[in-house]
Amino acid sequence: MTTTPEKTDVVTLTIDGIQVSVPKDTLVIRAAEQVGVQIPRFCDHPLLAPVGACRQCLVEIPDAGNGRGMPKPQASCTIPVAEGMVVNTQVTSPVADKAQQGQMEFLLINHPLDCPVCDKGGECPLQNQAMSNGRGESRFSATGGVKRTFPKPINISAQILLDRERCIVCQRCTRFASEIAGDPFIALVERGAQQQIGIADNAPFLSYFSGNTIQICPVGALTSADYRFRSRPFDLVSTPSIAEHDACGSAIRVDHRRGKVMRRLAGNDPEVNEEWITDKDRFGFHYARQADRLTHPLVRDTTSGELRPASWPEAFAVAARGLAAARTSGGVGVLTGGRLIAEDAYAYSKFARVVLGTNDIDFRARPHSAEEAAFLASEVVLRMPVTYADLEKASVVVLAGLEPEDEAGSIFLRLRKAVAAGTRVVAVAPYSSRGLRKLKGRLVATSAGDEREALAALAADADAALDAGAVILVGERLAAVPGALTAAVDLARTTGARLAWVPRRAGDRGAVETGCLPNLLPGGRPVADPTARVDAAAAWGVTSLPEQPGRDGDGIVAALNAGELTGLVVGGVALDDLPDPEAARQALAAAEFVVSLELRENEVTRAADVVFPVAPVSDKAGLFVTWEGRPRTFDAVFSNPGSLPDLRILSGIAEESGVPLGFRTVEEARRQMNEVGPWDGARAPAAAAPKIKQRRLARNKFWLATWKQMLDNGAMLDGDTALSATARPAVARVPHATYDVLAGATHVTLAGDRGEVTLPVEAADLPDDTVWVPANNDGNGVLADLASPGSAVTVKAVKA
Amino acid sequence: MTDMLTPVLTANWGTDRSWTLEAYEAQGGYAALPKALKMKQDDVITAVKDSGLRGRGGAGFPTGMKWSFIPQDNPNPKYLVVNADESEPGTCKDIPLMMASPHTLVEGVIISSYAIRANHAFIYVRGEVLHVVRRLQRAVQEAYAAGHLGKNIHGSGYDLDLVIHAGAGAYICGEETALLDSLEGRRGQPRLRPPFPAVAGLYASPTVINNVESIASVPSIIDKGADWFASMGTEKSKGYVIYSLSGHVKTPGQYEAPLGITLRELIDLGGGMRAGHELKFWTPGGSSTPLLTAEQLDMPLDYEAVGAAGSMLGTRALQIFDETTCVVRAVLRWTEFYKHESCGKCTPCREGTWWLVQVLTRLEKGQGSEEDLDVLLDQCENILGRSFCALGDGATSPISSSIQHFRDEYLAHLTHGGCPFDPAASTAFAQEGALA
User: Fold this and answer.
1) CA angle centred on A275, ends A270 and A281, rounded to 5°
2) Given CB atoms, is A52 within the 8 Å cutoff of chain B?
3) Which end of chain B is more exposed for a tag (fewer CB within 10 A), N or C?
4) Is A343 helix (H, G, I), strand (E, B) or coil?
5) Which residue spans within B248-323 are E strands per DSSP?
6) Looking at beta carbons, which residues of chain A come within 8 Å of B366?
7) Helices B102-116 and B130-145 sit at what angle, rounded to 10 degrees?
8) Cα–Cα dist A506/A624, whole Å
9) Residues of A in contact with B178 (CB under 8 A)
10) What's the domain range around A464?
11) Do A516 and A489 share a structural domain?
């Protein structure tokens, strides 16, 4: 294969007699891979800085490129290639081979022979390389050697366990923790053979990314409470997939046995998540097998008024009949939540338009606004302005309404990498979060609700120095601040910076693309554009589509409460996530007919008239669209005939209604989506600047800032006990000035228009008029129990 | 006989309260400082280069050349760090020097820092020697009071702050990059090189790290001239050094003499071997240097000759063992030291020393077999040149050299079913007639 190398400097060297050209600065160990030689290694990891600790990768360098040889074998993981260098690995050099065998022997003398019970056994680099580069018999035990032992194991966090005697102190885990995650809670302690990984007293390894250390551990020293002793690698079947917990689209590998997911690992996708995933992506999969999982359709019995099991055909018929009646008596709204695969979202979008005859559909199960819907239609849909790789190249990244460590873990890790290479981070945020400090970011301290002004001011901020190399990442939370998204668009326009929208949930972006919005049809077709409607109608083979732009989530709830809408289709929405949970609860009660498509029983299913169980992501193929706009398809892990995707259920109801959707499977839906294709006509116009109401803060009140921490009380973490134990505890953060006034009180009670919460209190560099609480680490969450973000709350000290 | 001695560093050790500024100055101390401050910095470096001074910490790297590696166009501050973490078994020259005459070192630090344009210098002292730390601290205090340290030293416009830093008791921190990590407040483990300390050392800034004796030699070079210094010693090993004679000689101690003196001469200076005993083996420069035997009694003790004999001059820590000593036992004790001091960073040193001790222990007890000797040598081969830093290399020296010279004695342990030596016979209290 002859390819012209890119414009990088190329260095040519000889490895085991074979000439090879590699980019400058390539390490010898990786250059050797190019000629098909795998040098054994432990401490080396392509994404971590070289350390040269394990000495396993020793090679001979008879010519360092300057005509002189290196007198001793060299660790090939620390030596960059040089022009004319000659390297002899274990393949051609008896010295290198002996050196490697010697290191392997040393590594094994203190390593326990517990491979038969070790989780790593069968997929263990130490085991494998001991076979390939070690001796069969132990001279250590032949000479009566006594191994060093430790009591086993110790918890370094609620999730991660450490078997110290298995550890070969390669430092991969500690280097990951400090270099990649920025959470150096683990470090080497003691020395010599007693050297071990340790934590400080009362400072466990609480990192959102801790699970990665288990995966890169080259021995079985690190295990998870979740998986330890659960199965053997050779009993597992591995299926590549895409993580469903956030909009990052991280590649994962699902390892399963007899129809049960045993564990999940990070996939290797250099374009997206590299080799890292969050602990939520890794450990959060027990939700799908909780006891409250729905297994069969339910319909409300006309005589008893109770839900009773029903056959699929009956449920389809009852749902079709009820929805038709509701459509006639007022109309039906559709709330889809943000966790759907794009094919399911597309099915809801089409179902709303052609079966229910409405644009009353919204995926945004969170505070939202009309300004946001217009922003998504004009600025986001169909576009891919920023990729992960672009983050690394950006001069400065502005974060607004986005806390990447909590809300988009892969973005956070990529930003850490970017920052190490010189990218600056500026955050329009209420306070310097741990995540922001780890990004060495500059805080533009912003009161909750003042993001619009803060973004506007950034245009002229000489320190931020936004230019065409800058990237602005706006989070979904910005929707709750009138004018903020418009200000972000203006900022991008005036500075030349690129703008990307980062939602929290895996299905959010796909829902935008497939038209689960009141103002968008699939493929970015604006509802308000007659040609776009005709185009979609033609693609779907219907005569017309509803013309009126629909109601958004708030509008649907209000219309149900006002009796303007009488029916509701809900797919995967928790009421306490909605902007006004109480109003949503009333709307659910007010609706005459409710169809619920759900994985597990919840408030909505209990109130619904027809309940359909749906398949979890493991049971279906699908497509998630990342925050970048990158499609991420995956195949089903399990083939489970009783577990149907939403689109199959919607098509069943549609067929019963006499308006078939034209697909019954994910593949068919995807094919139809591709046929409908993206809209090539005019994009929706930019959002009109919303009217800004002047806010005034009453005396002794504070604006409420909040976001969802990565690990919280969300239903998708149910059953993950060890993982949940590593969550950051719920604390209220108050400005330093306020904290001083509390005079040592350990707790505060915050009171808002929806209730009161009492939490431990901490001081933070918040503006004097703002307090922060995590959105869902306490009770039913902030929206249900306290107030909506950006509204005013009071703070009272609680006497201990 | 004593005309072979050239006391320079040790000249004032005998004076009353020699460690005080008063006593040091009375002996002509701090005379070199004003001379140096009047010189151009590069001229000071040239003088040290011309003197032929080589690092006294063991490796013998030319000191002036090391100084000239400091990139003066680097915008970061420059640092001088003195390695006073003297911990090698047998090595005992820096600590007496700092005890007896800390000002010699302080004056050397000032001149050396001036030469490399450092405004901040550190002396990293081994943590266990608290009395030395106190003497150094007091000397620095006195030097500040006398205007030898601080702002605008003696009107020269040159500023220097000197910090005495006590380590926490780790042999590895004598390795220069581990020392830097420790000085920075981290765990003392050797760093990957490059970057070398001259480019990115302390706080990622250009740093010179020198041994105590090297720096302490600088004032005499400035005061008496490079030619005077270079007139001593041998062709490539110039100047005087401190020879630390210990073990089975009548008068152990510090003997300052030009490089190139022989062990026979030194033993004579030390009053000869213990009465009635003869030399069995010795180390030229601490336990990390392969041990030698009476065959090398007339070998000149300079870098080249000792190297040619298969050992290293090292720190000139001459540990003398007579025929009462069991070499297996001595080597085991040294190996236990390396096992205890291995930092744990790299596999061969960490695991290798763990294993070596076990094999040697068995051999000393007369257990095991002759093949164990080959296993031992093979282990040493797998450590030497494979470990991250020189600690692992040093751990193998006594083992491989002792098997080379005394293989029969190892085997005697096996045939004898244990150590054939009387362990009491080698002790210091085992004088003739003192034993029953």
Assistant:
1) 115
2) yes
3) C
4) helix
5) 253-258, 279-283, 292-293, 317-322
6) none
7) 60
8) 6
9) none
10) 375-502
11) no
The total of other beta-carbon atoms located within 10 Å of residue A332's CB is 32
Q: What is the pLDDT of residue B2?
A: 67
Q: Is the dihedral of CA B34, B40, B42, B43 positive or negative?
A: negative
CA gap A299, A318 in Å, rounded: 8
Strand partners, B54: B62
The CATH number assigned to the domain holding A735 equals: 2.40.40.20
Q: For residues A344 and A376, give the distance between their C-alpha atoms in angstroms, rounded to a whole number.
A: 19
Confidence of residue A8 (pLDDT cuts 50, 70, 90): low
Whether residue A645 is found in the same domain as residue A541: yes
DSSP code for B314: T
Same domain assignment for residues A497 and A539: no
- Among the residues of B86-129, which ranges form H helices? 94-100, 102-116
A9 three-class SS: coil
Residue that the structure tokens 């020259």 belong to = B93
Q: Which amino acid makes up residue A690?
A: P
Q: How far apart are CA A245 and CA A263, in angstroms?
A: 15
pLDDT (0 to 100) of residue A730? 96
The secondary structure element, H or E, covering residue A438 is helix A434-438
Tell me: pLDDT of B257 over 70.
yes
Cα atoms found within 13 Å of the Cα of residue A287, Cβ hemisphere only: 25
Residue B434 has pLDDT above 70, yes or no: no
Angstrom CA distances, B408 to A143, A695, B403, B425, stand at 20, 94, 8, 20
All domains in chain B, ordered by first residue: 2-230 (3.40.50.11540), 240-320 (3.10.20.600), 327-424 (1.20.1440.230)
CB < 8 Å from B in window 99-118 of A: 99, 102-103, 105-107, 109-110
Q: Per-residue pLDDT averaged across A700-725, rounded?
A: 96
Is the Cα dihedral B35, B36, B39, B45 positive or negative? positive
Domain contains A684? no
What is the domain count for chain A? 5
Which 8-state DSSP code applies to residue A400? E
The pair phi, psi for residue B146, each rounded to 5°, is -85, 0
**Is A263 part of a structural domain of the chain?**
yes
Q: Token digits for B103?
A: 């000002």
Q: Are residues A477 and A516 both part of a single domain?
A: no
Peptide bond into B195 cis (omega under 30): yes
CB contact under 8 A, A194 and B344: yes
Q: Which of A58, A98, A107 sits opposite B351 (nearest CB)?
A: A107
Q: How many CB pairs under 8 A join A and B?
A: 108
| CA pair distance A435, A442, nearest whole angstrom | 11
- Rounded to the nearest angstrom, the minimum Cα separation between B350 and chain A is 5
C-alpha A320/C-alpha A655 separation (Å) is 9
Q: Which of A642, A676, A710 is the last residue of a domain?
A: A676
pLDDT surpassing 60 at residue B412: yes
Same domain, A488 and A631: no
Shared domain check, A494 and A568: no
Residue A131 lies in a domain: no
Q: Does one domain contain both A338 and A393? A: no
Neighbours of A700 (CB within 10 A): 9
Mean residue pLDDT of chain A comes to: 96
Residue A2 has pLDDT above 50, yes or no: no
- Residue B431 pLDDT > 90: no
* B355 contact residues in A (CB cutoff 8 A): 106, 109, 140, 143, 145
Instruction: Look at chain B and count its residues.
Output: 436
Name residues whose C-beta falls within 8 Å of residue A443's C-beta, 6 or more positions apart in sequence: A427, A429, A431, A432, A436, A765
- Give yes or no: residues A752 and A713 share one domain: yes
Q: Beta strand pairing status for A86-88 and A154-155? A: unpaired
CB neighbour list of residue A33: distance below 8 Å, 6 or more residues apart: none
Task: Flag whether A169 is in a domain.
Answer: yes
Cis preceding linkage at A151, omega within 30: no
| 3-state class (DSSP) for residue B282 | strand
Whole-prediction pTM: 0.95
